[in-house]
Amino acid sequence: MTETIEAPAALRQINHWIGGRPVAGESGRKGRVFNPAAGRQTGEVDFATPEEVDRAVQAARAAFATWREVSLARRAEIFFRIRELVHERREEVARILTSEHGKVFSDALGEVTRGLEVIEFCCGLPTLLKSEYSEQASTGIDVYSIRQPLGVVAGITPFNFPAMVPMWMWAPAIACGNTFVLKPSEKDPSASNWTAELLKEAGLPDGVFNVVHGDKVAVDAVLEHPDVAAVSFVGSTPIARYVYEKATAAGKRCQALGGAKNHMIVLPDADIDMAADAAVSAAYGSAGERCMAVSMLVAVGSVADPLIEAIKDRIPRVKVGDGMDPSNEMGPLITREHRDKVASYLEDGDVVVDGRENCPDEGFFLAPSLIDNLEPGMRAYDDEIFGPVLGVTRVDTYDEAVRLVNESPWGNGTAIFTRDGGVARRFQFEAGAGMVGVNVPIPVPVAYYSFGGWKGSLFGDRHIYGPEGIDFYTRGKVVTSRWPDPATSKVDLGFPQTR
Ligand code: NAD
Q1: Domain 262-438 in CATH: superfamily?
Q2: How far is the CA of 7 from the centre of ligand 1 (A)?
């Protein structure tokens, strides 16, 4: 397996987006952006200085003064327009995702569709921001609650969902009346600039949505900026912990979603074919670079041998290659370094299928791999591998299986495969994870619920998007009021309209 990393003559330049227009970086520092299927550099992205981050925050701050006054009716209108544009142009952004991330085009379209669900949820912002009212709480006195935006809020996002995870943040944040500064992954930054242009076309005022590209320097500048009121982060656990500690120490509200190692338990009464299809789809989809990927299969009792056979049968049929070829089902990993790191785990346990064989010649590919007999204490069991490597642990009982889930330092997603409703219900009660699937391997909640894990998979109190997202991006105020008799009124026979 070889790959070439040649810089073509003309690299695409990826700039910041501040105050409604592209702004070329001035730091002189840049990151390399690759087409991972070709193993070739295709672009370079500006890395922001603290001064450039400040410029974006100031643009957002200036825009906040007017954006928070825009009526709910007008905001909803803009969101409906955003929804239409993203839907119409989803193939355009999916192509960007495939070219920079590597995921196959159909999967990239799926990413956009799941993000679009969050935008659709936000179209209902007038309903979402409704509050409570108590008439005559005391004689002549009414009490009511309102929710107001926080101000300038920031999002820091990972490489694996370059369009959807930012949508989880900017859509509810902006719907609630905040203005936004996004620091996307430097590995696949172009979807963020595409989003910025689309939001402008949809009628979002300049400065409401800004993008600064970069690395730790930009992240630290966001975390230290006194005008940033809240930070949403999605990424690996060590960085999530760092961001949470630094942001909260600076007095900011923070939700920081971290990494994962998701266990899928298969009981002896499960439908073996259904479980094998689910395990292969959830372990190798997007080359395993999903925080909700199934990475550990926990086979209980007699199910282990037939289940592993069924998975082994399916693996050679997974077509690996360039994501723009519609016959391919799995693309490359994000970088050569990451591919090599993932491949280094094929040393623990008993390697049943070695993905280093049968890979395309170019690009950062590793084919689906399967390791049997992993246990806690082994590197391939303990680490989040974040690649197309499915590990299997064999246990004798349901109780041992649940203990593995609950002793994991992560608690993002977990799933159980069984025909026994009573056991499934017990699992839902006992499992130490934020998202549980019953015969569903990747239980990513629909947009009107919230997404988030437990333990090392989430630092902070509130999950992301859905009702908790609205809660995160607003703060409450309670008004107690008394009025003299109202004296203002006029005759107007027109049908009442929103303004
Ligand atoms: P990452 O933690 O390396 O990077 C995430 C963001 O943090 C990027 O914007 C990056 O520029 C920034 N960053 C990286 N190093 C930093 C540092 N030292 N200081 C400050 N900022 C830094 O994560 P990644 O590799 O881009 O994404 C993969 C990880 O994200 C996996 O661990 C995956 O499980 C996790 N993830 C979690 C969820 C979830 O919902 N829990 C969703 C998607 C991805």
Answers
A1: Aldehyde Dehydrogenase; Chain A, domain 2 (3.40.309.10)
A2: 26
Of the pLDDT bands very low, low, confident and very high (cuts 50, 70, 90), residue 321 is very high
Ligand 1 pocket check for 76: Cβ under 6 Å: no
Question: Does residue 384 have its Cβ closer than 6 Å to ligand 1?
Answer: yes
Residue pair 329/368 in contact by the 8 Å Cβ criterion: no
Q: Is-above-0.90 flag for pTM?
A: yes
- Are the beta carbons of 360 and 384 closer than 8 angstroms? no
Distance between CA atoms of 423 and 268, rounded to whole angstroms? 12
Sketch the domain layout of the chain as residue ranges: 12-258+457-477, 262-438
What topology is assigned to 12-258+457-477 in CATH?
Aldehyde Dehydrogenase; Chain A, domain 1 (3.40.605)
Rounded to the nearest angstrom, the distance between the alpha carbon of 101 and the centre of ligand 1 is: 14
Mean pLDDT of the chain: 96
Q: Which residue puts its alpha carbon closest to atom 42 of ligand 1?
A: 291
The best mutation among 225, 257, 291, 342 to test binding of ligand 1, ranked by most ligand atoms within 8 Å of the C-beta, falls on 291
Read off the pLDDT of each residue in 246-250 and give the average, rounded to a whole number.
Answer: 98
Pocket test for ligand 1, best of 185, 237, 334 (most atoms within 8 A of CB): 185
Predicted confidence band of residue 499 (pLDDT cuts 50, 70, 90): low
DSSP collapsed to 3 states, 189-234 = CHHHHHHHHHHHHCCCCCCCEEECCCCHHHHHHHHHCCCEEEEEEE
**Ligand 1 pocket member 239 (CB < 6 A):** yes
| pLDDT tens digit sequence for 279-290 | 999 999 999 999
Structure tokens, 32: 């390399």
Enumerate the active-site residues: 291
The CB of 42 under 6 Å from ligand 1? The reply is no
Q: What is the pLDDT of residue 484?
A: 79
Instruction: Work out the percent of the chain whose per-residue pLDDT is above 70.
Output: 97
pLDDT band for 492, please (50, 70, 90 cuts): confident
> What is the 166 CA–ligand 1 centroid distance (Å)?
12
Angle among Cα 157, 163, 169 to the nearest 5 degrees reads 55
| Short-list 285, 302, 273, CA closest to 390 | 285
**299: Cβ contacts below 8 Å, ≥ 6 apart:** 266, 307, 308, 392, 393, 394, 395
Ligand 1 site, residue 158, Cβ cutoff 6 A: yes
pLDDT for res 8: 53
Q: How confident is the model at residue 4 (pLDDT cuts 50, 70, 90)?
A: very low
Of ligand 1's listed atoms, the one at least distance from the Cα of 457 is 41
Average pLDDT for 464-469: 98
Q: What are phi and psi of 431, to 5 degrees?
A: -65, 130
- Does residue 183 carry a pLDDT above 90? yes
